[in-house]
Design brief:
This protein has about 350 residues and is of the alpha/beta class. Helix content is about 45%, strand content about 20%. A six-stranded parallel sheet has the order 2-1-3-4-5-11, sandwiched between helices. A six-stranded mixed sheet has the order 7-6-8-9-10-12, with helices on both faces. Helix 8 crosses helix 9. The N and C termini lie far apart (about 65 Å).
Length: about 350
């Protein structure tokens, strides 16, 4: 049978109130703290977090809502979030929205019913209406990866516009002018990356012909089909910007099935360094997002908000810190997938 708080009382001779105070993080005399800690170790006592939550109004659990748990980006971020939450003594309760806004709203309500202390959301929805229930209930929310333009919640993301513009600039600096874009106009991150590309093209006084612009979903199918359409053109591009990991995967599959060779016939720069860039030969030049830093900052912000709420309970007059949108900078890691070309557009040597 598992040890209980009464067993600790018998071993230490201390009152239940003193032991409870210790378990809930209160200040004790050093000798009493030492007695309790020795008894916990001897008895192999484990704290019942559910019972503690009823007393402290804290479950030590954070709800994490993701747009697609099968997505490689999401899997990687979840690992880093788990590391950060675990180090802080919290557990994660994960819900998958299956890229469905209605499911996402249901997930939020479900987690609220589980009395989570806070929410981390990688959103599907394009607006923040589904966050109204936790906001009204005073449950802190931090968005990760995708901003919804809502000043009521914190957000940690990457500067997608700048990163995409820098990736496209790299192609221009290598001499490319016939540049195609395979991207997404259905999700917020994809739209931001497209904005960065278009801004750079305007700055460089360059245009993308309609047949070079392939917009659709962040999906392997979109990348594959779009790349084949580009390769079959009478005058195909000399370089392609690929908007995310799934698009990269599909596009590289198409190139591998074709007679085109990278970078001799086609140069490639992509967004996201998730496995495929290392498996490709040559290694792809890619935008690398600081995923661990994104996760760490998300956990840090959420725990700060949870602490703010705790402090506000004891000090109602305490001023709340304004919510923030933290935009981290990505970096470009060059591989061997971009060729230098002459003004004619013909490849002369590879990077």
């Amino acid at each position: 049978m598992a040890a209980t708080i009464r067993d600790i009382k018998k071993v230490t001779g201390l009152s239940l109130a003193t032991i409870s105070k210790y378990l809930n993080g209160g200040n004790l005399l050093p000798e009493n703290r030492e007695k309790i800690e020795r008894a916990i170790e001897e008895l192999h006592y484990e704290v019942n977090e559910m019972a503690r939550g009823l007393v402290t109004s804290q479950s030590k659990t954070v709800g994490v809502v993701v747009f697609d748990i099968a997505n490689v980006f999401v899997c990687t971020v979840l690992q880093y979030l788990g590391d950060g939450l675990r180090a802080a003594g919290y557990a994660a309760m994960i819900c998958d929205s299956h890229n469905d806004p209605l499911q996402e709203a249901d997930n939020i309500r479900f987690l609220m019913g589980k009395q989570v202390d806070g929410l981390i959301v990688l959103p599907v929805a394009q607006t923040s209406d589904f966050l109204n229930p936790p906001i009204r209930a005073g449950i802190p929310v931090v968005l990760l990866d995708r901003s919804l333009g809502d000043s009521r919640v914190d957000c940690v993301k990457v500067d997608n516009q700048t990163a995409a513009a820098e990736a496209l600039r790299l192609l221009v600096e290598y001499g490319h002018r016939r540049i195609a874009i395979i991207g997404s106009d259905t999700v917020i991150t994809g739209k931001e990356r497209l904005e960065g590309c278009f801004q750079l093209l305007k700055e460089m006084n360059l245009a993308v012909p309609p047949e070079y612009l392939k917009l659709g979903n962040h999906s392997i199918e979109h990348g594959y089909q779009s790349m084949w359409e580009l390769l079959r053109l009478r005058k195909p591009p000399t370089a392609v910007f690929l908007g995310n990991f799934e698009i990269i995967l599909g596009a590289v599959m198409a190139v591998n099935e074709s007679e085109f060779r990278c970078p001799a016939d086609l140069s490639i720069v992509g967004f996201d360094d998730l496995i495929v860039s290392n498996l490709s030969n040559p290694r792809l030049s890619v935008v690398v997002q600081p995923l661990r830093s994104m996760a760490d900052e998300t956990v840090r912000l959420l725990l700060r908000r949870i602490e703010d709420i705790r402090n506000a309970g004891s000090n109602p007059d305490a001023e709340q810190e304004p919510h923030m949108e933290l935009s981290l900078r990505a970096q470009i890691v060059e591989g061997g997938s971009i060729a230098h070309i002459k003004c004619s557009g013909r490849a002369v040597n590879s990077n």
